[in-house]
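Team,

Forwarding the record for the chain on the shared tracking sheet. I've put the sequence and predicted structure together so nobody has to dig through attachments.
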Amino acid sequence: MNAMMRVRLKADGRIVEILADGTERAMARAAATTPLAGPDVAGATVLANPRIGGQGRDAVYAKGIRARAKLTQAEFAARIGVPIETVRNWEQGKRSPRGPARALLKVIDQAPQVAFAVLNTAKPER
């Protein structure tokens, strides 16, 4: 039986797994500590805390998450269910991810396999 993992984004930015008995267990942060390649992508310190700074850091954060997922902008947009223009605007610093988008990016950053598995099982709206 394939049980679905339940996760929660805490107010302090941590992601925890919700266990069957209702208790929480902290999830590993391996993805956020992996350095990224490329001259326009910052190190793990910036990626671990996207709220520091303005839209420039948000752009680096969004681009870094996509880069670690090894997806093109079009592929990433399709996987998370947003228009490609949204991803482009985030990465160019024209817009910053807000609310649910920021939460989704945080989950993808810390637990990409879980996030993409859940997104793949989501039923499309009609």
